[in-house]
Design goal:
six-stranded antiparallel β-barrel, alpha+beta, 28% strand, 3 domains
Length: 285
């Protein structure tokens, strides 16, 4: 305490000067409108800058949560859109056709979507695979389709309780039924093992009108993907020598080098379809 009093006594004139300056400044600000407005604007600008930085930091911290909300919303929208293939028993009443979580036995949707994160992925191998962070506990099984917000990504091959392994579309073992959206011409999507941005569409007759930029989508003929899921866009068109078929090179809609969020497509009627497919068909003479 003695040292504090000595310090104050030694610099008393300095502190008195600061006090008088502060009083004079306050009197000036209260008496002159111009100076007061300048200080108010300066204070507002500084406050705005501080709040803006704080808000940006908060937004960045919440990105993960916001992305999760967007993924869940996309799931709801995708499931709502998939209801174009629904089945209604005779004399049934459907009260809410947009609520895909309904347990009403009168309402059925063939395909539902499960949000997932990609946790492993390759693009430069002859046969590329990927891994997602959900498995058997979330109802994911073999031969289910994988997509992201841009288009088709792959097919599930192996499942554990908490994870799933799948073939990427960048895998020479995948042959996927597809079509040209503009004219519904069927073909087969394959990968030639060369470059991860491009694939090829085969089995399209050469008399078909195909243009650069045409959209390639799923045909709906497989039980893995619904109809009209995006696959890619036509880049080059030529005719295979000695055949009457096109050689079509296309650009994948999905960027396989930056996979983050996606969806697994569950065909909830696959068992029923398989059971009727195994029934021996009658021979008609």
């Amino acid at each position: 305490m003695r040292y504090l009093l000595a310090f104050l006594k030694k610099y008393s004139f300095f502190f008195l000067f600061i006090l008088l300056e502060a009083i004079a400044f306050i009197w000036m600000m209260n008496g002159l409108n111009y100076q007061r407005s300048v200080m108010a604007n300066l204070s507002g600008s500084l406050s705005g800058a501080v709040y803006s930085v704080a808000n940006n930091i908060t937004d960045f911290a919440n990105l993960g949560r916001e992305n999760e909300k967007l993924v869940q919303e996309n799931v709801r929208l995708r499931n709502a859109l998939s209801h174009k293939k629904t089945y209604y028993p005779v004399d049934s009443v459907v009260y809410d056709t947009l609520n895909y979580t309904t347990r009403d036995s009168a309402f059925y949707s063939q395909f539902v979507y499960e949000p997932v994160n990609f946790i492993h992925n390759t693009v430069h191998k002859p046969n590329n695979y990927l891994m997602i962070d959900k498995g058997r506990k979330e109802g994911i099984g073999q031969d289910m389709g994988i997509v992201n917000g841009s288009g088709v990504v792959g097919i599930i091959t192996d499942v554990s309780n908490n994870f799933s392994w799948g073939m990427s579309m960048l895998n020479t073992n995948i042959k996927l039924s597809a079509k040209l959206k503009r004219n519904n011409q069927l073909g087969t999507v394959e990968w030639d093992g060369k470059e991860f941005r491009h694939g090829k569409l085969t089995d399209v007759p050469a008399h078909t009108n195909v243009k650069t930029g045409d959209t390639i989508v799923t045909s709906g003929y497989s039980q893995v993907f619904p109809e009209d899921i995006m696959i890619g866009f036509v880049d080059e068109v030529s005719v295979n020598e000695g055949t009457n078929l096109y050689a079509i090179r296309f650009r994948y809609a999905a960027d396989f080098n930056s996979l983050d969020y996606g969806y697994v497509i569950k065909n909830v009627m696959i068992k029923e379809i398989d059971s009727i497919s195994n029934i021996q068909k009658p021979v008609i003479n």
